[in-house]
């Protein structure tokens, strides 16, 4: 293609409008007349989810079999950029095999609150870790000729209000925490596309947020690629295009094309503005369409890689010495997950696994001496007394109990947030009974995000597998029996209870989400308060061996920080260690976290082997964002460099003085922001104080002129005498599926259908009528949505007008004769 200016001249306005919107759910619009093909976009971050028919972005309908890699919380715990590179290469091969040109990932939103339903897919609470891992993933996929989509830009940190919520935050939190990973990945790995998030940021939808898309992403960071909307994430098509959001997905929304054509006709939108986006779409097509021969991926190699990631990503949280296990003992294995392992999360990232190695298969392959009792049932429906008597009958012979437990698909998924962070009641009751037997119990934990562990902590060891992907069972067996040495480190803090979370009570209570904790997210907060708030700190993870650190040095030369440390494997197992370098900035009138991760390195060491690990980074990486200067500032003063094995386990500290930076006044008035200087007081930060930080006058719930708007959650409809019928029609689909599934015989088919039923019933009430229409690929027309609303707001005539309204738009080019 390439001669874009010639192409632009040849394209009609209608064709251009078609090019900036998708079609058939996963495709861009082709222009057959000019030989412009369409390309395929497909999820996602944990594996390729290529659907041929019955498309959906909810993980409900079947997709082509592909490698289901572990989800983000597990892969991030590897702290190993090299493995992200390999995973990217493998996914690119599978994408090419399935004719996918754009892979919708990575998902690098910050884990702000442990209840966020999508935390399983996201990487970390720390932007440096997310950024470094995401960078390698993007670079390797792009290098292989497949485009990536860095998502969800930005500040998309809850699910309950993802379609209509407004994330309000101060500029410093925005820059230092929520945009940092995006910035790194955009600048260093140059993803071909960035996906705008559904939500608003400081009052403006991300898809029409010119500040985020044009000012920051394009002008400041120099981004050259395309911005694609999240599926159904466009509010006003003209505003979004003007703000720099190029491609609207999944498309086939007549109303949006109508809006664009009208705007061009009236002069509200210039052809030049439209051309910019068209050009980006053409460039994307041009760079990703390949004539290369299609090669079948080496599925076996990819399965092995999935196992390797799961093995490195598993975190040994606790071990009283019981692990590794000997293969000669008699084990009683308890828990539904042993046979039917939970290995991935629900929603758009769901992969149809090519193969699965469950723990049961892995145990059988090893010919181990074990008996098994289900103990609990994931659906929570089975009779627990009956299940317990089976466990009891097998207890006598067992020397050690291995309990496979964790969050289920019924409590954690894309589309809704968790109500609390507890483990399922039936599993905890069973744990009580297992503990009472007096036998040793090892917990093998599954799930995508932190849970409260007070009871689980009474077991002898906790091996946290997270959601380990299709090879999770094999990974668990390798680790339990010491064939491999655990080396995963938590990429997020595990709080001792939900009460520890700053402003936790305010989470998802309304559309406006005030990020009152500012930059104090994750360990940046917990390291500054009472340690009892944390069960397992950021960076924590045990090993079967021990590592000795020595000769920690830090130098400052030519605006660069260079640090090094010697690490020796002083134990009896070969294994890997993650050396973590945190920095405490000087105390000053600028509030700041106790320390921040500034570098890390994973190193593998044979027994008795010693290696020197070096870290190098720019002095400017220690800067804070000055909200008045709108720039990054490095302060003069005493910096403390800590070599550590977790954010709370510092081994050695060195000091460096920085003196030659310009002295710049703090932008803050300390007396009114005391809660940020003394984190024990953080909850005293009032909404009014937060407003001053935000420089905005309104942090309360959004007001709207009509009771119901296109943005209203479906959940709000149920209290309206007419709306409730619409609500029931939509949510009822899930409830009906659930009821029907109950009639099926016990087995995987029943469990899947029950899960889908619950998923629909929990997720749909969070949708807005606008996002439902925009994501329906033309099935639920915008004017229908508008009509329903008018009816609910009492405007019957207007409603009728919309019900009969037709937006006249030309046929799509692919349908033109
Ligand atoms: C998700 C995106 C995903 C898209 C397509 C949306 O609901 O938020 O992450 O890429 O669907 O499946």
Question: Main β-sheet: number of strands, strand sense, barrel status?
Answer: 6 strands, mixed
Widest β-sheet, arrangement of strands: 12-18-17-16-13-15
- Cofactors, ions, other ligands: beta-D-glucopyranose
Radius of gyration: 27 Å
CATH homologous superfamily identity of the domain at 302-490? Glycoside hydrolase family 3 C-terminal domain
The secondary-structure class comes to alpha/beta
> CATH class of the domain at 302-490, anyone?
Alpha Beta
| Overall 3D form | globular
Distance between the termini: 23 Å
Question: Using DSSP, what is the number of strands?
Answer: 30
Structural description of this entry:
The chain is an alpha/beta fold and 817 residues long. Among the domains are: 189 residues, Rossmann fold (3-Layer(aba) Sandwich), CATH 3.40.50.1700; 111 residues, Immunoglobulin-like (Sandwich); 102 residues, no CATH class. 32% of the residues lie in helices and 19% in strands. The strands form nine sheets. It has a six-stranded mixed beta sheet with strand order 12-18-17-16-13-15, with helices on both faces. A five-stranded parallel beta sheet has the order 3-5-6-8-11, sandwiched between helices. The structure holds beta-D-glucopyranose. Beta-D-glucopyranose binds next to loops.
